[in-house]
Design a protein that fits this description.
mainly alpha, globular, two-stranded antiparallel sheet
Length: 455
């Protein structure tokens, strides 16, 4: 038997347990650290603004660039994990991200901070965070929804813990020392990444004999089977990898072939244009309202993410309600919380907003994978997820920047109105997709509901 045929006869074998639970725990803590630092960065921004004496829109570019490049890094992460494996990409990304935090603290110019924290840090953060989600998807198949919910719940715990922790660091040391300390914590993801050993493989079933490549469908794209990856490495090399990444980043042809995907992509673009506004402007608004503990408000958004992600992950697996309708429900909840924000002028009402908004975005983040599979089918899932993340990244880049301009020209509350408007546009397109799937307009041939009575 030839070496090539031998390589093609091995496919990933998700154990749905076993060492997968160790991988799940490691990925949980990676999300805890990475997202904790990212979501609490709004607490550090006012001090950076005062230090460089820049406008709010320019300061917001730091978060815009970081989150934008994180989402757009999906094709890069997929290519690197195919070429190098998940473990070294996670570890290398953690090292680079930690260095970016430290370099940013010593940068004499805001533009250097944009480059180190925003651009390079965004891509390296994606390498660590997205890769950790990829390997969870490889280790879990039947329990993928619950496993994803547990992993991403680490983001909620981190957002809660790091919000208060960052506030304490700022008050005790200042923003430069805070970034250095956060960078040293991010470095611990290198140790966690060392625990992410490759998923075991099994002989390929005969049903797949005609397939040239068996794909593991994940959040950032497809990761080829381990042996096939080694073959591609030997055959194509780094040059072909780079060309493949660039082609994947620009491949949006599927949008013209699937109206459901087009609408849900536009929905995600608008939603993520307003997604990070609360994280950036709640500390500023709290200061205007003489609320001393704004960090707890931000932390509470992350805290309620935990039961929200787990709950919506369970519902997405059980299919009592279809994943796309769960998504639409979450967008409705988010819209309601954002449109009401201008009337929430006390500490307790701000906490109510945190619970309401946090529950909504927790669900949004948990149902993307299942509803995309319903809209485009498994054969197009990888390409569709890459497109979604690309448009999310563009939205994340534009949203905080435009929100900063609006807050400077009008008021902080006006930036929340902008966020609510963006979510409302996203709701229109989400509703159209829900309507289309409900009446069979967007379903692919591969779509099969687990429960024929699902809503």
């Amino acid at each position: 038997m030839s070496g090539k045929s031998t390589r093609q006869e091995r496919v990933p074998a998700p154990p749905d347990g076993g060492y997968g639970w160790g991988v799940l725990i490691a990925s949980f803590f990676i999300g805890f650290i990475i997202d904790g630092c990212m979501y609490s960065f709004g607490i550090v921004l006012p001090d950076i603004k005062d230090n460089f004496k820049e406008t709010q829109e320019k300061i917001n570019l730091l978060s815009s660039l970081n989150t934008g490049f994180l989402f757009c890094s999906g094709p890069i992460v997929a290519g690197l994990t195919n070429q190098l494996g998940i473990r070294p990409v996670v570890m290398g990304g953690a090292i680079v991200t930690a260095l970016c935090y430290v370099v940013s603290s010593y940068s004499p110019s805001i533009y250097l901070v944009m480059l180190s924290y925003g651009v390079i840090g965004g891509i390296s953060t994606g390498c660590t965070y997205i890769s950790s989600l990829i390997i969870v998807a490889q280790y879990f198949d039947r329990l993928q929804g619950v496993a994803t919910g547990v992993t991403m719940a680490g983001s909620g715990v981190g957002a809660y813990a790091f919000a208060k922790f960052s506030q304490i660091l700022i008050e005790s040391f200042g923003w430069k020392e805070t970034l250095i300390i956060l960078g040293s914590i991010i470095l611990q993801c290198c140790l966690l990444g060392a625990l992410l050993r490759p998923v075991p493989t099994k002989p390929k079933p005969k049903i797949y004999e005609q397939n040239l490549v068996e794909e593991v469908h994940t959040f950032s794209g497809s990761v080829l089977s381990i042996n096939e990856v080694r073959h591609i490495q030997k055959k194509n090399g780094t040059g072909s990898l780079i060309i493949g990444i660039l082609k994947e980043m620009g491949n949006v042809s599927l949008l013209g072939k699937n109206i459901g995907l087009l609408f849900i992509t536009l929905s995600n673009f608008f939603i993520f244009s307003g997604y990070f506004i609360p994280f950036l402007f709640i500390p500023i608004r709290a200061k205007q309202l003489d609320i001393a503990d704004s960090s707890f408000i931000l932390g509470l958004i992350g805290l309620v993410n935990i039961p929200s992600r787990l709950g919506f992950g369970f519902l997405a697996d059980a299919r009592f309600i279809s994943p796309i309708n769960l998504n639409t429900l979450c967008v409705i909840m988010a819209c309601g919380s954002l449109w009401s924000y201008s009337f929430l002028n006390t500490y307790n009402l701000q906490l109510l907003f945190a619970v309401w908004f946090g529950t909504a975005i927790g669900g949004l983040n948990c149902v993307t994978t299942p509803y995309l599979k319903d809209i485009v089918g498994m054969e197009n899932f990888s390409n569709a997820m890459g497109i979604i993340n690309l448009f999310r990244g563009v939205g994340c880049f534009l949203g905080p920047f435009l929100g900063g301009i609006i807050s400077e020209k009008f008021s902080v509350v006006a930036s929340f109105v902008y966020s609510a408007t963006m979510f409302s546009f996203g709701l229109i397109f989400a509703f159209l997709v829900s309507f289309g799937i409900r009446f069979g307009l967007f379903r692919t041939a591969s779509y099969k509901a687990a429960n024929t009575n699902e809503i």
